[in-house]
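User: I'm curious whether this sequence folds into something compact or stays loose and floppy. Could you predict its structure so I can see for myself?
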Amino acid sequence: MITVKFFGGAKKSFPQEQLEVDKSDISILELLDLLPKLKPSDTPDLDAENILVAINGADSSAMDGKSTIIKNNDLVSIIPVIHGGSKTKLDLEISKKQIQVIEIKGQKTIDVTFLDELRKEFPKLKLQAISSKFILNEYHLKKVLSLSIESEKNKILLSNRLETDILMRFALTGQISDAIKNAGLKEKDNFFLIAIGNKKLLDSLNKKLQPYSIQLFSKNNETFLKKHFKINKKQIDSVYSKTPLEDLLIEKAAILF
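Assistant: Here's the prediction. I'll summarize afterward.
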């Protein structure tokens, strides 16, 4: 027997908060294939591409992804990662936190003081800048943010601040100085600004940054990330998923201490 617990928007597909499934020793992928057959016919479909799946409180992306085997008496949590927005802005909701992501074009006039000034102007927002080179795509972005937010909830952050934890997980290092040096904001380099807070303030921030924003994920960083983190073809081929590089990066981010 497996217990499946639904959070947030997933409750629209399964009105009950949790569901008992008379199965065991099946993969997450098999469970996701089974769930549509168990839900009421008059409810919306579950968006299986935009969810975080945890087993007994641990993110499955840090295990074997959708190939992770669910055992008897396991508790599986289905947590939607809701997103929307335009090409230059991504809005996310993860564990009830409102998150806005904007990619900013690097300029000579934009350096670390730019971020400091934003923090002064928007003190109620949590802000972090990540070099665009260190974020592969939307899937990678959402999963790493989910890791940091879940770590904050479980009081196991890599540092005493959520913003720093986010930077360290994208940089794949347990050293704050290395994270800043490698994945932090640099003059003339494009970067992602990640903001966490209430929607009204996020909208104000977006309005201010519109003159600097560019199309999200406009460059392919795959070659850079493989080289920087020394990920070879053998490692890629050992991951049985449609997104092996992303899953390797997420796994490395999940096991940092």
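Summary: The domain at 83-254 is CATH 3.30.2380.10 (PF0523-like). The mean pLDDT is 90.
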